[in-house]
């Protein structure tokens, strides 16, 4: 743990003491584990996340997907265009409000869910932690994310 006085002075703090670096490193390591599995599905990790949202909700507006995934429209729009281009999603303006674009699954997108359903189990085997540790870590990360999101 970093001593508050050391942190305030900037002394004795190394990169290995930084929580943000540990989170960054863990994120990169997790993406490396996902990559070969998602390559088989023809998806990048961000595309996989969009598909996960749609498999859970069937149809969402672009804004709703962005809120769930914490992505801005500048990042999300190209992802959606690529997913539409490969035939996994469709985009349609909402009849009641043409400013809203709804994203839905195509038959190919629904079919991909069967293949993708194996990914979470394959990944969880690689974490190297027990289920109770997994649940605790997930809970703490959600709490941290929520705290940082509400205070920024």
UniProtKB/TrEMBL annotation:
SMART domains, from UniProt?
Answer: HTH_MARR
Q: From what superkingdom does this record's organism come?
A: Bacteria
Keyword DNA-binding found: yes
For this UniProt entry, what is the primary localization, expressed as one broad class? cytoplasm
GO CC, alphabetical: cytoplasm
Domain HTH marR-type, by residue range, is 16-146
One GO term of the biological process aspect: response to stress
Q: Which InterPro entries match?
A: HTH_MarR-typ, MarR/SlyA-like, Transc_reg_Sar_Rot_HTH, WH-like_DNA-bd_sf, WH_DNA-bd_sf
Tell me if DNA-binding is a UniProt keyword of this record. yes
**SUPFAM superfamilies from the entry?**
Winged helix' DNA-binding domain
The molecular function terms in GO held by this entry are:
DNA binding; DNA-binding transcription factor activity
Subcellular location, in the record's words? Answer: Cytoplasm
**Mind listing the UniProt keywords for this protein, alphabetically?**
Cytoplasm, DNA-binding, Transcription, Transcription regulation
Pfam families from the xrefs?
A: Staph_reg_Sar_Rot
Name of the protein described by the UniProt record? MarR family transcriptional regulator
Q: Which organism is it from?
A: Dictyobacter vulcani
């Amino acid at each position: 743990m970093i001593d508050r006085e050391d942190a305030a002075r900037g002394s004795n703090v190394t990169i290995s003491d930084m929580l943000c670096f540990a989170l960054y490193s863990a994120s990169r390591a997790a993406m490396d584990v996902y990559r070969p599995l998602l390559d088989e599905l023809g998806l990048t990790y961000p595309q996989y996340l969009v598909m996960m949202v749609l498999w859970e909700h069937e149809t969402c507006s672009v804004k709703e997907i962005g809120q769930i995934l914490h992505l801005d429209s500048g990042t999300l729009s190209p992802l959606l265009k690529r997913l539409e281009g490969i035939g996994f999603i469709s985009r349609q303006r909402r009849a009641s409000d043409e400013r809203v674009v709804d994203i839905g699954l195509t038959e190919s997108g629904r079919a991909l869910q069967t293949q993708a359903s194996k990914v979470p189990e394959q990944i969880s085997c690689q974490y190297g932690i027990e289920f109770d540790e997994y649940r605790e870590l997930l809970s703490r990360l959600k709490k941290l994310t929520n705290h940082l999101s509400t205070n920024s």
